[in-house]
Each structure stands twice: as structure tokens, then as C-alpha cells.
User: Fold these one by one.
Assistant:
Number 1:
Amino acid sequence: MNYPQIQFSEHRQSEIDLYKLQELFNLAAFWAKGRSIEDLGIAIANSDPVISIWNGEQLIGFARATSDCIYRATIWDVVIHPEYRGTGLGRKLVETVLSHPRVIKVERVYLMTTHQQEFYERIGFQSNVSTTMVLYNQSQIETLPVTEVQLQESLGG
């Protein structure tokens, strides 16, 4: 990789250009197409680190993470502009997130991927089918009423 004009940046939440990020997602990330500016702002405000890659004024890469700084972290939204794939920038981006102080000492780092398992395995990630579960938006799940009998049974009464 020989791109002297390429720069990696760590951002505070208010520093990322959400319109450029939305444009990159719409171009290069099928799983993130159509995300609203408002939702992107909320996601970034609740993430640390937030890392981007720039070629001059062009946003060409992005990743973010959430972490409790000791036990668990999750890497989110790793994306590289299609014209820059295969250059090593994606690997460097993930390694930059992994070396961040909020992530580096974490016991386990998770991520989700649909088609890039081999890419992440080359970095050191392993498939983990035993702990992967999902709970969809709580507002869409119908709450079942708990009767007094059910409550007593669950408490051993």
C-alpha cells in the first residue's frame, strides 16, 4: 500500500461529516444503504472509537466500535470505498480500531459480517456460532401478560 495522501482520523462525535458518511454507505455497504443522517448521528454519538480514512477531501473508509473497555467490545460499520479495496486499507482500519485504548485490553471483540468472514479471519477473528443471538426491536415484540399463577410458579411457589 503506497498512498502518501491517505490519512486516518479519529473523530469526536461532532467532527464526522454525516453526509459524506451516508454517501459512502450508500455506495459501498449494502447493509447500510438508506440510513438517515439523524440515525447516523445517534450511532456515532454512542460510539468510541470512530475512525475514518480520507484521500484528501474524499471519505474512503470508516469503522466504529462500542466498548465497556474491559470485557466486551463490538466493531461496527467497517466499510472501504470500492476503488480502494484490496489495498490493505481495510485491514489497517480494523487494526486501528483494535489498537484503540477503549478496545485494546478488552477480553472479547465481536463483529457481525455477512460475506467477509475470510477477511476477518486473516486478521485473527474466529467464527463464533455458540454465542450469537439476536433480539429485534422491543417495540415490535408483543408483551405477554404474566398472571399471578405464572408468577408464583416461576418463583417456586
Number 2:
Amino acid sequence: MNPQKFNEQILNNALQMDASVNFQLNGNMLIMPCPWEDEKQVTNGERVNYKAGVSVDSDGRTRVKRYKDGSKGPLHETLYETAHGAVKMTRPQIRPYNGRRRMDEEFVYVTFKFPKKYGLALTKALYEEEADEIMSYFKTRKEETIWK
């Protein structure tokens, strides 16, 4: 199967997996109960809304909304990782009125997480190696890192 055609099918047509599950174009899912369960009442006669955009009607029809639109997404993007450390940067902030980046609101974070079972000597040795590796990464970056 050509993966390009599969992606086009998902983006252009609503999909129906079987008689009870429908994937809609906007990302929502509609789950219909089986026909032989029509006489059963799932809720107390009214729609029940749950967290994460799930709502269940009294007849069992379930709607699952896609993930929230307009959310900011992840706050940090990972630039570089070592075995026990990571370099993350806040997502670029772009001014809507002139399209320029807000450089004063972009920060780079370096975090290390070493297990306690390593002991102090091993932790210090690994820290020095990984700190050198991260500093060499900073030297090869195309954007200048401003240290405060």
C-alpha cells in the first residue's frame, strides 16, 4: 500500500472503521452502540460529559472530540539530548503585528537527571563529560546563545 495514498484518504474522506465507529473530517470520533443494544439505557436519560471531550448520550452514542484547537502545544522543544541531560528551548514567540521574534522571551534550559545509585564520583565524572558535550553543541549552534 502506498503511504501517500493512505494519508490522502485520511485527509480527504471521513472514515468508517466498522458499523459503529466513524472518524470525521474534523478529527472527532462518533461511536454508535450495536443495534441489538438499542433498548438499553446507558445514562439516566440525558447527555453526560466527561473530561477530554467525551460525551455519552442516553442511548449509548458516544462522541469523542479531537484535542483542543488553539492550544499552545508543548512549551519547550528539545534541541539536544545526552544520556542524562537535555537542552531545551522555549518555543519561539513571534509578534503578530510585525512578524519579528521576541528574543527576550526565548530561553534555553539545560537539565541533568542522574540516578542516586550512581554515587558522587560517577555522577561528577558523567556530568563533566556530558557538560563538555553540551558546550560543544552550543559552540556549533547557528544562533548565538546569550548567557545571563
